[in-house]
Amino acid sequence: MTISADFTSRWFDLERLREDSFINEVEFRRECVSTNDLALSLTADNQSSTLVLTDSQTGGRGRGNNQWWARDGSLTFSLRLMPADFSVVHKKWPLVSLTTAIAVADMLAEFAPHQTVGLKWPNDVFMNGRKICGILVEPPKGSTSELVIGVGINVANSLSKAPQEVRKIATSIVDETDNEFSPSDVLLKFLQHFETLIRHLGSESLNLSERWQQQCTLTGHQISIESGDRQIAGLCRGISDTGAINVETDGVIRPWYGGIVRRIE
């Protein structure tokens, strides 16, 4: 179990993060373009759970061409792990992003218990109607045993000076609570919730669709889905046990497993 760091972190207690969570290895960089890119580039010699972390991410990626707007005090990290270590079989890999989002929501309930937290399929978490977290899950090239889970959470980085188009759709913990929590504390609490949930996913004891339904921002609303060159619109009927979003169109409910989803107001 090792910690590799190119600088003393301003925000994170690396020893505590490793000792008090399931993480075996920590890769810390004072600055990097993308923690997911860095995690994907690591060799997999030891195949242990690795936390890739930075004080400053300059070019975080989201789904499609989206980018993650991050500033000082934000929490941007990636986990490189073997789902089999948590008894998560390959057919359940599509559920890992949803499980991660629930872990974020459970963490936020502790730091901001009076705020409304919502989940937007498949990989976003909202607070009081604005995005506070994005998730990007991808396998290393050529690997059939590992996943990289990238997470960006707005913690102590107020969006008051963000571009107007960002302020309209995004928020942070400090903006909603007026409390500047430590990103290190927030990360540790997330890791603890994530471990519990991912093990429950592996042991068949996590009712994912029921948990998601409790905080889903789309259920009961008209939505549109863009998937490749296809676009559909219909009524969201929640998610299935396999992680698909259920859409009712012309009285027929169909599952969709991918695409860009927008709520039609």
Question: Mind sketching the topology for me?
Answer:
Layout lengths: L2 E3 L8 H6 L5 E8 L2 H7 L8 E8 L2 E2 L5 E2 L6 E7 L14 H16 L5 E4 L3 E4 L2 E9 L8 E7 L10 H4 L5 H5 L5 H20 L5 H6 L8 E6 L2 E10 L5 E5 L2 E5 L3 E4 L2
Parallel strand pairs: 1-2, 2-3
Antiparallel strand pairs: 3-6, 4-5, 6-10, 7-8, 8-9, 9-10, 11-12, 11-15, 12-13, 13-14
Helix pairs in contact: 3-6
Describe this structure in words.
The protein has helices at residues 14-19, 35-41, 96-111, 164-167, 173-177, 183-202, 208-213; strands at 3-5, 25-32, 50-57, 60-61, 67-68, 75-81, 117-120, 124-127, 130-138, 147-153, 222-227, 230-239, 245-249, 252-256, 260-263. The protein is α+β, with helices and mostly antiparallel strands. The N and C termini lie far apart (49 Å). The mean pLDDT is 91.
> Per the principal axes of the C-alpha atoms, what is the gross shape?
globular
Overall number of domains = 2
What is the CATH topology of the largest domain? Answer: BirA Bifunctional Protein, domain 2
Which range best describes the helical content: under 10%, 10-25%, 25-40%, 40-55%, 55-70% or over 70%?
Answer: 10-25%
CATH architecture of the largest domain: 2-Layer Sandwich
Biggest sheet: strands side by side, in what order? Answer: 1-2-3-6-10-9-8-7
- How large a portion of the residues is in β-strands, by DSSP E? 25-35%
Radius of gyration: 18 Å
User: What separation lies between the terminal Cα atoms?
Assistant: 49 Å
Poorly predicted runs are none
